[in-house]
From TrEMBL, chain A:
UniProt KW keywords: Coiled coil, DNA damage, Nucleus, Transcription, Transcription regulation
Alphabetized SMART domains for the sequence: ACTIN
Location within or outside the cell: Nucleus
Annotated organism of origin: Handroanthus impetiginosus
Cellular compartments per GO CC: nucleus
Protein's recorded name: Actin-related protein 5
Chief localisation class: nucleus
Biased composition (Polar residues): 469-479
Coiled coil: 309-366
Automatic annotation (TrEMBL), chain B:
Main location per the UniProt record: nucleus
Keyword terms of this UniProt record: Nucleus, Transcription, Transcription regulation
InterPro entries noted in UniProt: INO80C/Ies6, Vps72/YL1_C
Any Gene Ontology CC annotation: Ino80 complex
Chain ranges of the Vps72/YL1 C-terminal domain: 72-101
Listed name of the protein: Vps72/YL1 C-terminal domain-containing protein
Entry-linked SMART domains: YL1_C (SM00993)
Lineage: Eukaryota, Viridiplantae, Streptophyta, Embryophyta, Tracheophyta
Localization annotation: Nucleus
GO biological-process terms attached to the record: chromatin remodeling
Organism this protein belongs to: Handroanthus impetiginosus
Statement: the UniProt record of this protein carries the keyword Transcription regulation: yes
Amino acid sequence: MPFISKIQRQSDYSSFSSAHPIVIDNGGSYFRIGWAGEDEPRVIFRNIIQRPRHKITGETITVVGDHNTALLKYFDCTRSGPRSAFDSNVVYQFEIMEYILDFGFDRLGADQSQINHPVLITECACNPVQSRSKMAELLFESYGVPSVAFGVDAAFSYKYNQQLGICSNDGLVICSGFNTSHVIPFLNGEPLYEACCRTNVGGYHVTDYLKQLLSLKYPHHMSKLTWEKVEDLKMEHCYIAPDYASEVRLFQKGDKKAEEKTRVWQLPWTPTPVEEAPSEEEIARKAALKEKQGQRLREMAEAKRFNRINDLENEIRELEMLLEKLRHASEDDIPSILSKTVHNSKHDVESALAKATQSLRKAKGEPVEIVEKMDPSSAEKYNLINVPDEMLTPEQLKQKRKQLFIKSTSEARQQKKQKQIEEELERERQKKLEEERRLENPERYLEELRAKHRDLTEKIEQRKRLKTNGHTNGNNNASGGVGRGERLNPSQRERMRLLTTAAFDRGKGEDTFGTRDEDWQLYKLMSKDNDDDDDDKPDPDEAELTRISSRLQEIDPTFIFKSESGSSSAEAPRFRPLTKEDFQIILGVERFRCPEILFNPNLIGIEQAGLDEMVGVSVRRLPLKDNSLNEKITNSILLTGGSCLFPGMSERLEAGIRMIRPCGTPIKIFQASDPILDAWRGASTYAAAMQFPQQTFSRMDYYEKGEDWLRRYQLRYTI
Amino acid sequence: MEPEVVEAELVLPTHMKFKKIQMYEKYPKGQARVRWKHLKQIIQAENYQNFPPNETNYVNIESPPSMHPCKRICDITGYEAPYFDPRTKLRYANAEVFKVIRSLPNDYVQRYLALRNAAVVLR
């Protein structure tokens, strides 16, 4: 049963005479106000206020009770949560109380200059006199109430049910409210407060416990777990286990019964759109688009090439013409002709022509012949090499040295080329060999390859780890306490050591640093960046690994190439698409774990007796040690208050009380006709009685008789 | 104020016809807020120790501590908890839960402990 509130303004206020009392049930969770003698309270709302700021005007306003939450979007509620006038079950914040009373009277339809009706208002059992006097003062001073009466909600509920014939004149009321739970025995229709007892656990604690447990269990859905929603969950799903231990064992075993008892709350969730395989059309369209783009690019490239060929051909033609001209011109005319061009000599023009023809050939895509004109001329090119030094002039000697250098470099180039070809051949041969082995036994070959791959990956990983973390077995950082030394990798550590020794070696006798050449090596070591030690030459292992993995990719369909095994495994779960199950709030053990605190308050750290034990305590506190009376009392136990609505409550209570009371004691537990509204109804019928005015006190009484009188003030419930 | 807010009468009017003293007269704006005594302070001010002990009051009607042995349940699952982890001070039911509690961040541990009022409170 979710929150019910009635906040329509009543219009018949003026039709009630001034003697007609107003009845208020000022409960921890709900405020109920109405007219004496009626069956239902006229106005019901949650006993809270909120003071948000209007977003546009910035003025602080007061909102009482629960309204349409959609309207709160115009207000900034971030700095003002809902507030209550209660501390435990005692009213302490009378400013909030006043706002609540304002709202209550306003909605009841009050429109005269003051509230000219007697008021019956409920309070907790043994309300501290400070709270009681403040309340009386508020009603007298601010509202001009002529007379006031205070009563206890649980007692009114018991009296009401007694009138209905549910419980008898002597009995016991178990009232589990919002902030506290009370057990109050009744003797001859009057409550015995000296034998009552109170445990500071109530519906608030159950909801709070459930809310905390769920938000710890589902930290991602914390925002969905509002107080109101959790309260609804509690009212809908929580129940009291007949025996906590055996019930929990069901869940622990994962019994079928437990599964049936588990409730799932599905949060709004829309499945992420599944990526459908693109249709044929789509593929064709995309391919066409790609083809079109490629065509355009190709055309552009073609045009560019054509232009270039054209340019080159023009250039060649010009150069040829120039050459022709030069051939026919006399020696004297040459400079004048050349001066018009960029070229300096005939030779220059020829070389330019050769260059142009070569690039034209390249542009046209014809094979460029790299003319190695060395072979024919090598003999004459290196003509001086074999001639002994003595026979040469200094000029020739210089030339010889030059020739020697050229020859050696060209030979080296040749050799390198040869070596490359040989390597290529060797690789080719190995590949062939491997292929043969594969064909011979594909399975075994694959296995071997995989094993090799694994080993290599591990080896490389290990080395990487060593490089970054230092030794692998010593760094259990999970336990905390990572020292400074452990953060550095070995090479860094070595460098630190060198630096420190270099710094502290000084001053030890004579400073001999630098006398030996090896000393200077130290700087090399120090400045060495610890990463580059083998970055220049590719690691043979890594090269082998890439070769193997590429090979595996070729022949093994199950092989998945992992570039960074560490990061991929860590990120994999994050990219798991969220499923329906991720948006489910599962209520299993919580369903009965939360209300269990009513019977075992120590579960939430409150060291007080639970509901069943409270009955025992209360009976023990009775002033008359009379067994027949005790029996009479336990024979009429009334359950009331909002927290008594949990299914299984009376069974559990009966079992619990039976354990405490002597064997054979008659125990009867009755559920109140309406555990939530009975207190108000009881108060309403009480205030409608003829003798009610004698139970009230006026403003005059209050100021004349003083605080001590108010402390002793107590209603007589039987009138 | 938006018309729908006005129509819903969400905002409590500051002036009430039926009141002899209005809120704004009692708690004028800009004045220091009244410090309301909390329940603890109220009880202290009541001086219950000056009254005969057999007279009932708010304090002496409280229930005594439970006579039953304290029920120990697993802080995470709610199962019966035979074990206790000295490091996190959490109670746990089995090895799986132990794994969970050892992987819990400290603020979660503290929140679980706070549920049964056993968290370390730093003041």
